[in-house]
Write a structure and sequence with these properties.
59% helix, globular, alpha+beta, 4 strands, Glutathione S-transferase Yfyf (Class Pi), Chain A, domain 2, four-stranded mixed β-sheet
Length: 216
């Protein structure tokens, strides 16, 4: 049976899961959750995820949320091989580090810069933009000397990070100084199955949503 996937198309973490499922070959039963209408607060959804966040999956009674946890679960359970999340302890630890960097630093600093403006009507803070650029620079350094986020093979870390980088790009943050990031970004866009359909066009959707909130 397909896995129920509760998500928002514009959300970067949700898009990361979509990419991972596509690469692994897992069928998802897509269920859009309208947060603005409180669809994540219904008794039915809270039974699946009491934290009422997206993305969330329900794999035949097993519920899981947080994008990185979902991605590594899908790869571990349904992957045809271990290439996306190798079992070698050091390689896996490096992948985990990149995933945690994305969630805790890169995406966090993106949110710290844009979300107060989008959701609280605040002004853009130049210091927060500097910190976002610092995070992108860290990632640029991580990519020095190899093709992907960890070594020379695609892993779940790339799928998570590209969902964030594409959102940063869609929001017109200047990435031109980060040559390694741009090289990697272009490679991901042209090699990951379903990239444009699952991530590229939905990053633009995020931009349109953000613009509508910022203009209010």
């Amino acid at each position: 049976m397909p896995i129920d996937f509760y998500y928002i198309p514009a959300s970067a973490p949700c898009r990361a899961v979509l990419l991972a499922a596509k690469v692994v070959g897992v069928e998802l039963n897509l269920k859009i959750v309208d947060l603005m209408k409180g669809e994540n607060l219904t008794p039915e959804f809270l039974k699946i995820n009491p934290q009422h966040t997206v993305p969330t999956i329900d794999d035949n009674g097993f519920s899981l949320w947080e994008s990185c946890a979902i991605m590594t679960y899908l790869v571990s359970k349904y992957g045809k091989d271990e290439s996306l999340y190798p079992k070698d302890p050091q390689i896996r630890a490096s992948i985990d580090q990149r995933l945690f960097f994305d969630v805790g630093t890169l995406y966090a600093r993106f949110g710290n810069y844009f979300y107060p403006v989008m959701f609280a009507g605040q002004s853009f803070d130049p210091d927060k933009l500097t910190k976002l650029h610092d995070a992108v620079k860290f990632f640029d350094t991580f990519l020095e000397g190899h093709d992907y986020a960890v070594g020379n093979n695609l892993t779940v870390a790339d799928l998570s990070l590209v969902s964030t980088v594409s959102t940063i790009d869609a929001m017109e943050v200047d990435l031109s100084s980060y040559k390694n990031v741009l090289r990697w970004y272009n490679k991901i866009k042209t090699t990951v199955p379903g990239y444009e359909e699952l991530n590229g066009k939905n990053a633009i959707l995020f931009k349109k949503w953000a613009d509508s909130l910022i203009k209010k």
